[in-house]
Amino acid sequence: MSFLQEVELSKTFPPFASLEKVFGFVPNLFRAQTLLPRAIDAEAGIAGAVLFEEGALPRIRKETILLVVAAANRNAYCLTAHLQALRALGVPDRQINQIVVDYRHADLSQPDMALLDFAVRLARNAPWLSEEDIGALRGHGFNDEAILEAILTTALSGFLCTLSAGLGPSPDFEPPAPMPGVTTPAPPGARPYVGGIAGPYLHAVELSPASFPPFAFFLERFGSIPNLFRAQTLRPAAIEAEASAFRNVLMPDDFLSHVQKERILLVVSAANLNTYCVAAHCEMLRAMGVPAEESDQIAVDHHQADLSEANKALLDFALRLTRHPSEFGREDIDRLRNCGFSETHILEAVVVTALNNFINTLQMGLGTTPDVEARRVFGPEDVHLPPTVERHTEGTRDDPDAALVARAQNGDLDAFEELVTCHSRRVYRTLIGIVGNIEEAQDAMQDTFVKAFQHIGNFEGRSRFSTWLVTIASNAGLQRLRERRHIESLDDSAPETDEEFRPRQVRAWTGDPEELCSQAERRGLVESAMMKLPPKYRVVLILRDIEQLSGAEAAAALGLGIPAMKARLLRARLMLREALAPHFISNTRRIGL
Amino acid sequence: MITCDEFMADLGNYLEGDVAGEVRQQLEDHLSHCQTCQVVYDSTLKTVKIVTDSGSFDLPELTARPIREKIMARIRDVLDS
Lengths: 593, 81
Prior knowledge:
The structure holds two protein chains of two kinds.
Chain A: H1 14-23, H2 28-31, H3 37-52, H4 59-72, H5 76-88, H6 93-102, H7 110-125, H8 131-139, H9 144-167, H10 213-222, H11 227-230, H12 236-250, H13 258-271, H14 275-287, H15 292-301, H16 309-323, H17 330-338, H18 343-366, H19 394-397, H20 402-409, H21 413-435, H22 438-455, H23 465-483, H24 487-491, H25 513-516, H26 519-531, H27 535-546, H28 551-558, H29 562-584
Helix pairs in contact in A: 1-3, 3-9, 3-12, 4-5, 4-7, 4-9, 7-8, 7-9, 9-18, 10-12, 13-14, 13-15, 13-16, 13-18, 14-15, 16-17, 16-18, 20-21, 21-22, 21-23, 21-27, 22-23, 23-28, 27-29, 28-29
Chain B: H1 4-15, H2 21-33, H3 35-53, H4 61-80
Helix pairs in contact in B: 1-3, 2-3
């Protein structure tokens, strides 16, 4: 099931056969494109060359990049797929969840974190990427082959995320529980605007069109070999797959015309602030007879260009899919249908947009200089973009802190102080639940709020602010436990047998235990009983029964799956029940403290 | 008729109100016949309520205020540096 019509293709259709071989099934993302088999062919080729071809980065690192970029893009289809892939590669669920929530605190090595920082920056803030970022990776021991592969993988992620946002396939696996506080890249802030043409950053080797057919193809098609492809010669298989995608997606004009496709590539490249690709597509359009001024107008604001309403709608469609993929849906597809576009036209528009996002990301990662003189260097202020629609998710619609958070994000310290006041007790309780010691909990509480302040710009309202804070607190507490080398007590995933917590106290309790003793006495009992529990049980009780987080929120804060969290919670409740029972069984007249 | 072990296996979901239909009916049938499980269920429910209402690990305002001041001082340091 997806937004568009699907037809039955034979299992022996070669790309399906190769997908079946790699995944054991044909992912819904590809089934959604059966109207255009040549597109599936092109995509399977690129995915194969980037992901499955043995290269300088192991598959597990590439899948981690795909997972983190899908999370940063809020793309549930891709997130689920890569989560499953990592599971199949043997990564434990707990670590996968933590990578999604915050890869910087997922016990990854420094090089792994640097690789993910780079990928997220390239995926989300490409025009601000610079030689410095490449240098940082080299500093972590990555050679140019590995960096090229990281760039290709990030670009592939953009390709797959755009495709799935545009086609709306059902996930191939059960989607994960909602996870709060997904890592988001820091805003570009004061970093200089580089515009993606300050390179080339990577070392390349000479390949001759005489012996390397893809170069012969580009030479014939463009009259020269574009710098973008010359910069990838450390990975010839990728260049081959890209040439094949040109042949299969951009060159045919049986549905969308060449000019229509070039306009999409131009408009979306301009929206992505990709000076290199804008120059290239203006040049292509010029070769097709479109005057340079007209191309410029399309790049800057196609609504003011001399185009039919249907063609403007086509460009609106591609722009929305690129800029607001998480809001994209059936209505966008219907708008094109109403303009007279067929299912296959619409499918092709999605594929062309997705391929463009692949190429744009790739180019920004490589930093190649334009092949023809750029008529202008695109900066953030040059392009008229559709206005951003404020997006609220379940969690935030009724977040009582939303207004204070917004002020704090704009640098209002008083607003942040008010948030500290409102939430200090909650944060403290979470921490004492983990570290089990008052003084340390108070220290960790300071760390938690300082960290929250430093990262508040990244808080996007995917969860309530309070849940986000508890997640930070929980990580800070776990970090302290780790430093005390007590991590095994929280990490212990050894199966606990039923006998261990089979109830021993089975005498009935009094009707209303709260009548038996004062609240202060009950609090004393609960606190001392809870302090005797191992930390992993104490913390789950605090999050669920004292903080009253939902099951999904508590699971995410602890980096556990929901079933594991539930099992732990029941055990914790039963253990506490044993400890409290002597005080509340019905024939006890008065509790003996 | 389900066994006590089967009841215990579903107790967590039952306490959360996460079981429905036939499973729920089986659990309730078991409860109506088994005194031990009835006690465990009732006292666990009461445990949750006691924990939730106990106000445990609350931070007194007198302790909280100086900590908040330290937090804000550290944040100003971060901004200044």
